[in-house]
Structure prediction request, 976 residues.
Amino acid sequence: MLRFVTGRLIAMVLTMWAVSFVAFAIIQLPPGDYLTTYVATLSANGDRVDPAAIDALRQQYGFGEPYLVQYWKWVSGIVLRGDFGQSFEWKAPVTSLIWGRLGNSILLEGLAVVVMWLVALPIGIYAAVRKYSLGDYLATIGGFIGLAIPNFFFALILMYLSFVWFGETIGGLFSPGMENARWSVERIWDFLSHAWAPILVLSTAGTAELIRILRANLLDELKKPYVTTARAKGLSEMRAILKYPVRVALNPLVSTIGWLLPALVSSSVIVSVVLNLPTAGPLLLRSLTSQDMYLAGAIIMLLGILTVIGTLISDLILAWIDPRIRYGSK
Amino acid sequence: MKQDVLVHRTFKRPGRGLAGAVALAALLAAAAPALAQQQSPILDALVESGELPPVAERLPTNPLVVEPVDSVGTYGGTWRSALRGGLDNAWIARTVAYDGLVRYDREWKEIIPNLAESWEVSEDAKTYTFKLREGLKWNNGKPFTTADIEFAVQLHKEPTYVGPGGFLRNPNNPVELEVVDETTFKFIFEKPNGVLMDELASVNGLTIVSLSKDYCGQFYPPINPKAAEEAKAAGFDTWEAMMLNRCAWATETIRWANPDLPFMNAWMVKEPLTGSATRVTFERNPYYWKVDTEGNQLPYIDNLEMRVSDSVEELTLLALNGQIDFQDRHISTVANQPLFFDGQEAGDYRMGEEIQSSSNTMVIQFNLNHIDAKRRELFQNKDFRIGISHAIDRAEIIDVVFTGQGEPFQVAPRPESPFYNETYAKQYTEFDPALAAQHLEAAGLVKGADGMYTFADGSPLVVTIDTIASLRPEWPDMLELIQLQLEAAGIKLEINNIDRTLYYDKRPIGDYDAQVWGGDGGLDVVQEPRYYMANSPESVWAFRWQAWFNGTTPDIAEEPAPWAKQQMDLYNQLRGEGDPAKRTDLMKQILTIGQENFPVIGVSLPGNTYYIAKNNMRNIPQTMFQAYLFPTPAPYDPFQWYFAAE
Prediction:
């Protein structure tokens, strides 16, 4: 096990290095750079910028330098000093911008994942065990509806309904005045009274997917002889199902945990914009359109790291959950 | 309604401008001290405890007296509005920041005193002498003097420090600053500068009055030798980076992220606009230097609160729900108009009218400087452009895209402008397929077997128009209709929806058929003549000609056609001309040449837009002009708006 983890850690470092390289390349792919956008905005507003000044800025920001030089400056800053560079648009260090929003993202999306699993597991198991029952059909229909409605659209509908029915504008994660308050029972309540909407939106599609996968896998398992044997030996129905078949059926779910975090961050960008959530998504979107490359690079890089860490976690859980998988020296 | 707007406000004669300003100043000086000066009750306790000096000591010797729009107001309340995302500095500029040396009056006719109580322009329009009010103070109580102006000028002359700078950095007409005393200074230009007062009165004029030497000097190496080291220690690469972050100029977004930065505005930052902020708040500046006609210190409203939201939907719902007290930006779209109209009673708000300064909903700019010789020749042919213009069914577009609002219009001065000319505005706007065909053939196009036009040599003609859907969603809608209409006329059109950066990158390269943009310069004809002549990089229809004219990018410059060159000569004369009547005449000549040569194609005159305001919010005019350079609603003095007790 130790050898496995060590090997994985070394591979992780290499992967992250590759991720950073690709992330930086992607940001530089579009034509122009931040200064083009900046000049464009000023120009559209009727202001003029002296081209000499822009050249001076290009020099200062190092835009004229070859890709590898720029990349090295950026990545060495991160590794050696934890310095992600400056955000051009915010005229501030990137590190001062991302942590709060990334924290919000992880909190919100973590909760969405928990809700998703809590809802999907029992329904999935029930749907498999009581195949073609009314409950199974309801779960199936509900699941497909959840899967079919685009998240941003669902968010819009929720906003509209809550406005029409309750006269409330849902949006954001806190009430005005609560954002900067300290965590307290009151603030947690305020958070939950706002967060239910995005959590509901973010978890619906995923829930449906989980139910379907779990149901299909479990159906395969339930037919296998070891289940029959377990029943024949007098195990309670509950135990007979939960002890092995469910664990086996969870395999494909667990092995994709690694993708969950980044998928949630990226799939929630539009929802975050619609519901005005102070998460990393809108910041990433905005930084990409304005070509604020160090800020965008930092967010993409961190998403990459989340994926890598998530994959490690999923492998470890897999090793623990599935008796057929054995890692280690012997 | 707007007679002689530009004539008066732009080019004051030296004698008259000064006389007028002095007379006004004298009037104010005589009026102000006689009245009992009052202040917002929230400041009373601070004065009693000695934390703040009494209001008389906080005001300058002759505070600016502002005549309220309807009535003298009462103190208190919080004005709630919203920012779209974290980088929407324009809304703050429009509500809080508009306090330059001078400002526009509410009619957009004249330039009136503000921080400067008077000014004098030399006969040759090279020397401008300004006199600041005596006893002005930043919101931290420190004096605002010519030293602060000098600091801003010095900083913007640093080659490594980058701000827009405007006239401070214009390589074609360098400026020197001469400080006479604490309240008097002069700008001395190398060449005549007739447009300076307009630049200073517009939203671009805030740069030079936005930096406190006392505070910002600490980040500047010539004043604080340790500035560079301190910047490094604070996590910035250079002192310039730290300066931009802590001491941003004018209306830069990051300016509102630093509550320590001194301001001269009616409200000052309380909760800053940081990357993760979901609201920004402002509170009254106890040192604000304006009073109403009864001597009450302004502003009336104590606090501002701006929701920071990426979601237009959320903003719209907030407004409908009565949670916004005044706003036009972002929410006042054509699509939302019926929604807001119906919601007035429930939301307890009213709608007011805004006349846009823009002359057109969409300007189609064929690239007269195309790098492909065949296309350049075609696009430069006026008959081609006339043919296209006649092939467009503008009535259909207005009905479908703009719910019937607006009228067919070319890119020409608006009806409210003194430069309005019906021929220019209406020429070639009628939908006439036969006439269109006639002109297209006159341009040398030949109809092929499939009914589509080709070049004279038989090679196929497909025109590609670049657009940016994310900027104006109605552009692709309009273009899709135009595409069908032109196809019926025999011209194949491709719509190329691209990113804004690519849009700009294509311009210097010159490899594009046409691009679209909004109709700037409908009211601000003299300041923004980009579609009447090739004067700025926004004159996309003749990017290489403007490069020749401006001399900033010589590598792509091309000598303009004789008529375009003639316009440039006239504009140069205009810039150096002091006499307003002569300047108007020169501008009219430029417009006549523009009309004859018809460089760009317009679609329709934008209908009026609207603002929404809470019913108890007073002193807001029912009708306003809406422009960028005239930063609505700031010229309507939001600091004299108030909440009526009900």
Q: What stands out?
A: The longest strand of chain B covers residues 349-356. The CA atoms of residues 547 and 553 of chain B lie 6 Å apart.
